[in-house]
Amino acid sequence: LWSAANMTGVLKTCLLGALALSFLLSGAEAQCDNVNIITTWPGNYQAEFTATATSAINGLELELEFSSPPETVDFYQGQVTMVDDTHYILSSDFITANVGDEISFDFQVVYTGATPLVVHEVLNGQVICDSVFTTPSPMQNPCAETGMSPYDYAQVLCMSYLFYEAQRSGKLPADQRVTWRFDSALDDGSDVGHDLTGGYYDAGDHVKFGFPMAYTATVLAWGLIDFEEGHQSADQLEYGKAAVKWATDYFLKAHTAKDELYGQVGAGGPDHAFWGRPEDMTMERPSYKIDDGHPGSDLAGETAAALAAASIVFKSSDSAYSEEMLSVAKELYDFADAHRDIYTNAITDATAYYNSWSGYGDELAWAALWLARATGDDTYLTRARGHWDEFDYTGSEVVQFSWDDKRAAVFGLFYMLDGGDEYKNAFVSFLDWVKNDAPYTPEGLVFLDAWGANRHAANVAYLALYAAKLGLDAEENREWAKGQIGQLLGDNPKYQSFVVGYGVNPPEKPHHRSRYTH
Questions:
Q1: CA distance 274 to 283
Q2: What's the pLDDT score for residue 15?
Q3: CA distances from residue 389 to 61, 79, 175, 251, 453 in whole angstroms, order as listed
Q4: What is the 8-class DSSP label of residue 114?
Q5: Are 157 and 10 in contact (CB under 8 A)?
Q6: What are the DSSP calls for 329-358, one per residue?
Q7: 123 near 51, Cβ under 8 Å?
Q8: Cβ-based neighbour number of residue 443 at 10 Å
Q9: What positions does the domain Glycoside hydrolase family occupy (predicted)?
Q10: Which tops the pLDDT comparison, 466 or 279?
Q11: Rg from Cα positions in the chain
Q12: What gap in Å lies between CA 499 and CA 22, rounded to an integer?
């Protein structure tokens, strides 16, 4: 039970996580290279067709086959004939060309559901594109059942890490297990002359928001550090380290100079207007940064925390990488502390998506505490105490542990490193409130926020397990956390799992652009 409970601890944000599993699809699907989607809006795209005439053309007839049925196809330079659900003919008496001339025109596709991609073309009787296309088939789930009961924590942990592989941006590795994802966003950072490829896409979208990504990396690393035994028991330690490293490799790239950190790639508006795979993105992806003239203490502090925590994870297996991360973490923390402001004043595009409502005080202490743990240098603990006194973390109500507000976790990590009653009492008080006074659903799930209720429950369940490990109301906290994770895996009146691909009647339509265009 203890090992199983340890494993539930690392579910934390991962329970956002296994969403892709029952929908993991394989099968080759590629748009013809000469069709470029130039504009998208919900249920529509406008594309440019280009081709070189290999024979004289006196009037165009272009047969198009789509990967899924469009509702309509519009061609303003001629006529459109629907052959069947996926085959259309575009014709025009006015388009002519000599051998070697380039033919170019636009057309519009209206659709619902999956994006219809052009996969086969016949131009005036000659096949000019025959993209390999097969109907997607279910991909074998690489996360096998282990027989653990009442819930297979090991399988769910595996599925959670698999989710992060579905979120990868950049050039994918040879051991990528989510085989319907391919290389994407390989030009990220080119607008500013830096390589900002890699990292993770956000949720079901394609912006790389550095602030929540850094929080994710910190908490993933925390689970690997303090619940290593559970990871080893589930055979997930290496997958967990790979998930952390995919983020930290990106953070090291994003730290382009002293007091300079790129904290976002992609703009929220154009990204959210595109419903398609990251492999098919054509919109501009601007890069946004903080620096000493436009600081962001929350972003820099959280990134410092992520790198410091990750340096502990890799200290024994890759000491050079660990030292590199720790060096950058120190510099970013000093940057965060010396040049203070919330990051959304510099990266204004993030305001509508990941505004730092709690301010930057929690991230300053969080970064200092992780540096204290990673280095053993009491100077950082002293600085963390200074932040505690300055920002009065218990002065306002603490109601969650999230990408925005880390105060509850600061209480726990402070107690672990310092042992002072002030920090212990704050941590115990928060958990007592969660267990006894916070709102609950009728089924028994703690309900801390309507936006992502399950992840909030999983996050505080992790803190309860961490408190149990520290010897704080150990049995009560462990049982309460086990009950919350049980709620998410099927211990509810409907016996319903809330993890896609796991258990009874799991969700079937996750919000995830990469998935729905297969």
A1: 9
A2: 40
A3: 75, 72, 47, 30, 31
A4: S
A5: yes
A6: HHHHHHHHHHS---GGGTSGGGHHHH--TT
A7: yes
A8: 12
A9: 153-514
A10: 466
A11: 25
A12: 10
Could you write out the three-class secondary structure of 397-461?
Answer: CCCCCCCCCCHHHHHHHHHHHHCCHHHHHHHHHHHHHHHHCCCECCCCCECCCCCCHHHHHHHHH
* Cα–Cα nearest to 106, from 55, 62, 59, 42: 62
Strand-pairing partners, residue 292, are none
Q: The whole model's pTM is what?
A: 0.79
Of 343, 339, 330, 332, residue with least CA distance to 301: 332
- Which residue carries 């107690």 as its tokens? 415
> With 90 as the cut, is the pLDDT of residue 132 above it?
no
- Where does residue 16 fall: left (phi above 0), alpha (psi -120 to 50 degrees), or beta otherwise? alpha
User: Distance between CA 335 and CA 338 in Å, rounded?
Assistant: 5
Question: What does the alpha-carbon distance between residue 127 and residue 70 come to, in Å, rounded to a whole number?
Answer: 21
CA distances from 103 to 49, 52, 54, 56, 123 (A): 8, 6, 11, 11, 11
Retrieve residue 13's tokens: 């944000």
CA–CA separation, 508 and 343 (whole Å): 36
How far is the C-alpha of 303 from the C-alpha of 329, rounded, in Å?
A: 7
Task: Retrieve residue 91's tokens.
Answer: 């014709």
pLDDT (tens digit, 9 = 90+) per residue, 332-369? 999 999 999 999 999 999 999 999 999 999 999 999 99
Q: Give me the numbers of helices (H) and strands (E) for the chain, helices first please.
A: 16, 14
- Angstrom CA distances, 52 to 55, 97, 103, 131, stand at 9, 9, 6, 18
Helix H or strand E segment including 400:
none
Question: What pLDDT does residue 147 have?
Answer: 94
Judge whether 473 and 419 are in contact, CB under 8 Å: no
Task: Identify the CA nearest to 217 among candidates 239, 193, 247.
Answer: 247
- Does the CA dihedral 249-250-256-257 come out positive or negative? negative
Q: Is 196 helix (H, G, I), strand (E, B) or coil?
A: coil
Nearest to 210 by CA among 169, 173, 261: 261
